[in-house]
Amino acid sequence: MGSIVDEGLSGENNVEILAKFPCEKSLEEQLQVMELYTEKHKETKGMPKGKREIACMRVLFPRMFRKRQKEDLFVGRYDALPIGFGAVTSLGGVGHYCVFGKLSTFQQQLEKEEDKQRVNALIEYWNDHDLKAKHARKYNDKIVNKVFSKNSLDAPIESSARLSGMMLDYNKLVEKGVKGLRQETLSRMCDDKDNEFYLAVLDALDLFSDCCDYLAKQVEDEITYADKDQIEDLKVIVESLHVIREEPPKTFHQAIQIVWLYAILAGIINYGRLDDVVGTFLKHDLDTGYITYDKAKEYVKCLWTMIENKRTTVNGRVIVGGRGRKDPEAADIFTRIALEVCHECRYVEPQFTLRIYEDTPEDIFDKAMQCLADGATYPTLYNDKVHVPGLAHCMKVSEREAEQYAPFGCGEMNIVGKTVGTPNATINLTKTLNIFMNGGIDPYDNVYKGDGVHLKSLEDISSYQEFYNEYLVLVDHYLDILAYSQAKSYESMNNDVDFVFNSILMDNCLASGKPLLGGGVTYLGGCCETFGNTNTADALTAIKKLVFEEKKYTLTEINKALLADFEGYEMMRKDMLECPKYGNDDDYADKVYLELYDHVSRYTREAGIRNGLHHYGIVIINNQQNTDWGLLTSASADGRKNTVYLNPSNNPQGGADKNGPTAVLKSISKLDSRFHLGSVQNIKFQSDFFKDNMEKIKTMIKTYFNQLGGCQLMVTVVDAGALEDAMVHPEKYPDMIVRVSGFSAVFVNLSKEVQMELLSRTLNARV
Amino acid sequence: MNAYIMEVEKFAIHDGPGIRSVVFLQGCPLRCPWCANPESQEIKSQLMYKEKTCIKCGKCVVNCPQKAISIVDGKLQFDREKCIKCETCAINCPVSAIHFIGKSVEIEEIMQEVLKDKPFYIESQGGVTISGGEPFVQFAVLKELLVRLKEEGISTAVETTGDTDWEKIEECLPYIDLFLFDVKHSQASEIKRVTKGNGERILYNLKKLASVAANKIIIRTPVIPEFNYDSKTIKEIIDLGAKYQVSEVHLLPYHTLGTSKYEQLDREYTLQGIKMLSKDDLKDFVEYGKSLGVNIQAGG
C-alpha cells in the first residue's frame, strides 16, 4: 500500500463498536465506483464546489443503494465506500474523503496485482485531496494538538474536522417537499441569477428525485416476483416514492420515507425531533383509518431497524417530547409507539431521547420507566425546564429558539435547523494537570508538551490559589488552541465543499444564497469535549486539603508519589482516596469541581467567540474516550493509579460516590447549565431493585428534574448476570446501584463478602 | 447536644414511606440473636476488622500504642479490652481493613446532613427515620432531633423496639408521624427469653400507643425460623394488628446479611445454619392478614 499522510487518517480510531454490513457490490464494482468517483473529482477541478460535490455524488447515487431487505417497509439503505462524499466520520467520511485504513483493508482482499496497483493510484491521488488529510497537514502539531492522528490521545488535546453537529429542519422538508424547495430556490435566484450555490441546490434536488425514481423502479421490479403478502407493502413504497420525488408527503409512510432518504443523501446520522416531524401525518392516518395502529408500529419498528443497521454507534438520535412542537398531541402518539418499539427492540441505536417538560403526559413518563426497568437503556431523559433557558444563554439565542434544541451524538446540543455545533475539539484536563505539575513534561511518556508556556515550578508555589491559577494558565493555553482549531475546521471544510444537501434544510442558507459553512447557517457554533473533569477536581481537592490546609505533604512529595504510581506511597494514596470526592453532595469537593467547571466552561466560551464562532461551549459527555484517554494518562492526585480509566461524563469517579443516588444527583445538578452545551449523567440500578421501587425511583428522578435543576439523566438497569460480571470487572460498573438490606449501595463499593451474598440472593431469586 | 450514632443513611426506601434518610442511633436494651446491626447495640466506638481485605502487613501491630494487636498463626488478634479507640491502627492501615464505627456528633451536624435531601422528602412524601439500636435509649437526643425535624417541616418516623418508658413515647408523640414498631413475638415471655427485652413493657406500649395513635403505627415483625416462624405466633401478631387497627403490618423475612459484621466485631453469630426466608415463604400469612382486613405486606 502506498504511503499515507498520517497513519491516523486510516480511520482506525473512529469509534465503531458494531461492524457495518459488508458492501453488497462486488469488489470489482466497488473499485470501479471509487475510480469513477476519483475521475469525476479530477475532472471537476475548478468547478464551483457545490456543483462539483453533486457531480461527484452522482457517481455514488443511486448506484450505491443496497437492495431492499425482505422485511423493509422503506427503501434507501446505502453502502459507503472507502472513497466518496459524506459529512461525518461514522458514515463514509467528511467532504470528499478517502478512509485510508478501510481502503487498505479493501486492497488486501484483492487478488490480482494489477488491481492492487489500481488502489495504489487512488491512494496517491487522495493523499493530496482527502479533506481530513488536507486539514491535518495544516493543523496537526503532532505533540500538543494532534489532529486525526493514530496516537492522538498521547496529547493533552485533540482536534478534528467533522460536520456531525447539526439537526436538519425536516419540518421544512415535509412541509415544502422537493417541489417547494425548488420553487423557493428559483424565486430567490431571480435576484441572484449567477449564484453558484443555488445552481448546486437545484442539482441536488434533481438528484433526490432521480434517486426516488431509481428506487421506485427497483421496487416495481420486485413486485413482479414478490410474495403475495408483500405486494401491498411494496405498492405503498412505490407510491410514496412517486409522491416524494416532487411533492410534500401526505401520509405517515411518505413522511418517514422522505426523511430517511434525505438523511442518507445528506450523510446525516441523527434524526432530530422526529415526533414533531411525522406526528401530524401519523395522527391523520390513524384518524382517517388509512392505517392501523399496528401498521404504524410496524413502520416505526422498521425505521428503528434501519437506523440500527446503519451502525453509527454513538449517533442515531431520535428525539421526542418537549416544548415547541407544532402539535404535541399528535407528536405524543408517535412517542407512545416509539416507546413500545424501544421496549421491544432493545437496540443500541437509535439513541432514543425523551425530552421531559411541564406537559409530559404521565403515561409517557411511566412507559419510559418501564422501558428502563426492562433494560432497554432508553429513553435518555432531558429536562426542558433546565435546558431551554440554559441553552438560550449558552447559544446566545432566544428561549423560543432554544425550545428547538436537540442533542446529537453523545449529547452535544444543537438547535434544529439553526446551528452547526460539532465537537471538533477535546481536552484531557487530568493529563493537563499532570503536565503542569511536571513543568510541561507529560509523566505518561516523558515528552515535553508544555508548548513554551512558562509554568512555575512546584517549589515556588505557596498557596492553593497560586497552584490552581498556574494550572489554569496551561489549561487556557490549550483551550485557545482548541477554539482556534474549531474555527479552522469549518474553514477547511468550507474550502472544499458546500454540503449542499445539509445547507438546503438549514436556515439561512437558501435565504442568503450561501452554503452552510460559508456564511449560510444562522449560528455557527461548536463545542469542546472536556474529559477527566471529576478526576481533576478531586485531585485539586486532595492537593488543597492535604498540601495547603493540613500541610501533611508538600507539592513535590505529592508529585513524587504520582510519578512512582504510589509505589512506596500507599499511605499518601489512602489519604487522597479519603479526601472529599465529587458526587457525595459534599460542599467541599463540589465547590472545587464547580470552580473548575466555571472557569473551563466560561473560558472556552470566550475563546470560541474570540475566534469568530457565534457560540462555543464545553460538553461533558459520554463515550469511550474517558476510558481510552485514561489508559494514556499517568496517576493523578485523586488517588487514581497510572493508566486507569477517567471518570465518565459528569459522574463521580467509579467507587468514589459513597453516599447513595440522591447525593450523586444533588452533586451533579449543581452545574450552571447556562455554560455547557450538554452534560451527561449516568445512573445504574440492579433490575429487581429498580422494579421493586419504581415509584420511588420515579419520584427521585422527578425531584432531580423539577426541584434540583438536573438537566439530563441516563438510566441503566442491569440484570443479575451483570452482578457477576461486576465482580470480575468492577471498572465497568462504577455506578450500579443494588439493594443491600436496609439500604441501597453502589455494588462495587461493597465488600467482596457482601457482594457474594447479594449475588447468591439474586441468583436464588432468578431460579 | 451530642448524639452517638453509627451513620446517616441516604435514599433509604424501606424504612417508611417515600424517600428517606435514616439516622442510626446507638444503644439498645435488646440482644436479638438475628440483629443485622450488632454494632448498634452498645453506645461506644467499636473496632471492625475485615480479615479478607487485610494484607497482614503488620503496620497496625507496630503502631498500636496499647500493644493491643498481635499476629498469631498468621492471623490478626485484637485485645478489645486494652484498645482505647485511638484509631491509630485504622489511620495507618494501607488497605482500610480496620475502621471504627460509632461516633459522637453534634445534632446540628446530623441536621445539616439530613436536610440535604429535603427536596426528595418533599417530592416523595418521605422524610427522616430515626432508627437504632433503640432510639429511645438516647431519649434527649431523640426528642431534640424530632423537634428540629418538625421545625424544618420534615415528616418523621421512629423505628422502635417499644422497650422504653411509656412517658417517653408520650412525650415524643406530637413530633412523630410514624412508628415502625417491632413486634418480635406475640408472647412477652418469648420476647424476654430470646431478645432479653422487657416483653411485657413492649406489648403494653404497643397497646397504649394503639389506643391513641393506631394510624401512626406500622407493626414490623422480623420472621425468624426457630423463633417465631410458626403459624400460631405470626397469626397472633397479625391478630394484634387487626385488633388494634394499626395502619399496616410488615413481615420481614429473615436474612443473614449482617453476619459478616459479627466476624468483623469478633463476635459469634449464634444463628449459624439457619436459612434465609423469602417473601414467598410468607405469602400465606399475607393472605391471612388480608382476610382480616389488615393492610399487610411481606418485606419493608
Topology:
The complex is a heterodimer of chains A (767) and B (300).
Chain A: H1 27-43, H2 49-60, E1 83-88, E2 91-98, H3 100-109, H4 113-127, H5 131-139, E3 145-147, E4 157-159, H6 170-189, H7 196-223, H8 228-244, H9 252-266, H10 274-287, H11 293-310, E5 317-321, H12 328-345, E6 351-356, H13 362-373, E7 380-383, H14 384-394, H15 399-402, E8 405-408, E9 412-415, E10 419-420, E11 423-428, H16 429-437, E12 441-442, E13 447-448, H17 464-496, H18 500-504, H19 509-512, H20 516-520, E14 523-524, E15 527-531, H21 533-549, H22 555-563, H23 570-578, H24 587-610, E16 617-620, H25 625-630, H26 660-668, E17 676-679, E18 682-686, H27 687-692, H28 694-706, E19 712-718, H29 720-728, E20 736-739, E21 744-746, H30 752-766
Parallel strand pairs in A: 3-4, 5-6, 6-7, 10-14, 11-15, 15-16, 16-17, 18-19, 18-20
Antiparallel strand pairs in A: 1-2, 4-11, 7-19, 8-9, 12-13, 20-21
Helix pairs in contact in A: 1-2, 1-4, 2-7, 3-4, 5-17, 6-7, 7-8, 8-9, 9-10, 10-12, 11-12, 12-13, 16-17, 17-24, 21-24, 29-30
Chain B: E1 2-12, E2 20-25, E3 46-49, H1 59-63, E4 69-72, E5 75-78, H2 88-92, E6 98-101, E7 103-106, H3 107-115, H4 118-124, E8 127-131, H5 139-151, E9 156-160, H6 166-172, E10 178-182, H7 188-195, H8 199-213, E11 217-223, H9 231-244, E12 248-253, H10 259-264, H11 283-291, E13 296-298
Parallel strand pairs in B: 2-8, 8-9, 9-10, 10-11, 11-12, 12-13
Antiparallel strand pairs in B: 1-2, 1-7, 3-6, 4-5
Written overview of the protein:
The complex is a heterodimer of chains A (767) and B (300). In chain A, 51% of the residues lie in helices and 12% in strands. By secondary structure, chain A is an alpha/beta fold. In chain A, strand 5, helix 12 (328-345) and strand 6 form a beta-alpha-beta unit. Chain B starts with a strand and ends with a strand. Chain B is built from 11 helices and 13 strands. In chain B, helix 7 (188-195) packs across helix 8 (199-213). In chain B, strand 8, helix 5 and strand 9 form a beta-alpha-beta unit. The longest helix of chain B has 15 residues, at 199-213. Chain B is globular, with a radius of gyration of 20 Å. Chain B is α/β, with parallel strands linked by helices. In chain B, strands 7-1-2-8-9-10-11-12-13 form a 9-stranded mixed beta sheet. The chains are: A alpha/beta (767), B alpha/beta (300). Chains A and B meet through helix 23, helix 26, helix 28 and helix 30 of A and strand 1 and helix 4 of B.
